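Reader question, answered in our methods column.
A reader sent in the components of a multi-part assembly and asked whether the whole thing could be modeled at once rather than chain by chain. We filled in our standard form and ran it. Here is what they sent:
COMPLEX SIZE: two components
ENTRIES:
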Amino acid sequence: MNLDLASIALSDLIEVLIDGILFGLQLSLLAVGLVLIFGLGGILNLAHGEFVIVTGVISAVLISSGWNPAVAILAGILFSGILALALDRSVLRPVYRLEGEMEVLVGLFVTLGLAFTLEGITSYLFPGLYFSVRVPVETVSIFGLSFRASALVSGMISFLSLMLLLLFLGKTMTGKAIRAALQNQTGSKVCGIDVDRMRSLVFFLGGLMAGLAALAKGIASSVEPGSGLELTSYALIVGVVGGVRSVYGAMVAGILLGIVNALAGYLLGTYLTLVILLAIVVAVILYKPSGLFAGGV
Amino acid sequence: MDLLKVEGLKAGYKGLNVLWDVDLSVKKNTIVSIIGSNGSGKTTLLNAIMGLVEISEGDVVFKGERINHLRTQERVTLGLAFVPSERELFPQMSVQDNLMLGAYTPRARRSIKDSLRQVYDFFPVLKERSNQLAGTMSGGEQQMLAIGRALMSLPELLILDELSTGLAPAVTLRIYRKLKGLSERMTVLLAEQNIHQAFMVSDYIYVLENGRIIASGSPDELSESSLIKNAYLGVKA
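And here is the structure of the entire assembly that came back:
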């Protein structure tokens, strides 16, 4: 490894930084669903990454069957939302009746089982299938700096999706009720809020966010069966660093970790990036277990 | 007419009863208090009325309808509002958002602006701090916010648990005076450890000990009772 910091051009560094932010937005989008579901459902959903894969697979299958690509992708995203809702309404129902560590542990194994099942089904039925959206322009030049158009479009979709989620949670009565239920379930009940309904809604939203993450990832690179657990790992890393119950934390941590990932990849090599991200997680757990940005739901 | 009736109630936590054969009734436009020492079952009784703890026997009847099977949020929709002793606010949300969420039910949402104005008139400090996060307010202000949030649901019966806990006596007195004014258009049921304040505002009082009602009556009647004089008012009969 030959690291010569003096030889790095400022323009290269800016490009890497912006690449990092764009990738970080994808990470944020991936993590917010996980964080919402954990915050309200108390379940660390290890099948979250599989929702991304499911959207990719459904979209790719529908597009290859002749569907309009936009409609196919929308259907794929919606399907992930419905799948997450079905998970909440079926196998997780008995888990919610448990308490404390038992709920967390049983929830972990139920969702891990679901992750393996979905991975098995998608890998077995659609071997070699991948979902990728091609952007007509290869590169875009801004102020003399060159960027991949696909990364920019992907970042923009992630950003818009996150802003819409923030608007929904911050400005609508239902969004506020979700935030209220995340903060205090007894308080919510005495306001007349149906906490069970909010939890189902959060699962649906989490599934939709994973579906949108599939679109963002499909534009930037590709989505293929077999990579769901890796995506779940990224979402977990972002969630823990940001604060595992904080939507705002997941958004900021995703961008920060995207920058770290891009800088580490550029300066040290991509084979070390995941190790560095995991080291950050360990450091955060040791020094600020509640996460760097816990508090703002 | 009885707005609320509790009949032969047994309730508790995880199969262990805390309340035994509790009967009480609350007439419309009155203030009724449940007094008793710490651990006597006051909070459990209010929680049972609100559907927050399991009822093993007996009935809770509101406006003539048995509501045992209804979940807490459905009871709120019917016209019950609850201010828990822990306040249960949303600490990372603004005062205004906390209040708005108090009007979550469809009926309350229709008049949300009027209700907000009335609550701000009732507790002007909440208007001054409408953008402040609830978790950063003082204990007294949080108590006002919890009451304000409950009022936002336009309740027919306002239930308050341990209003005076953790509050300066002057603040408690101010809130009680405001509540007294409310009883002209609303019914109030409160659990209170501070006997003197309960006697000051209530039309009728129940005394709860070890999960059972041991006495009841108007403040005048109870103040003549030797049991109450000895145990609660610090007067030797």
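What stands out: The beta strands of chain A are 139-142, 145-148. Residues 30 and 213 of chain A are 6 Å apart (CA to CA).
Send us your own complexes using the same form.
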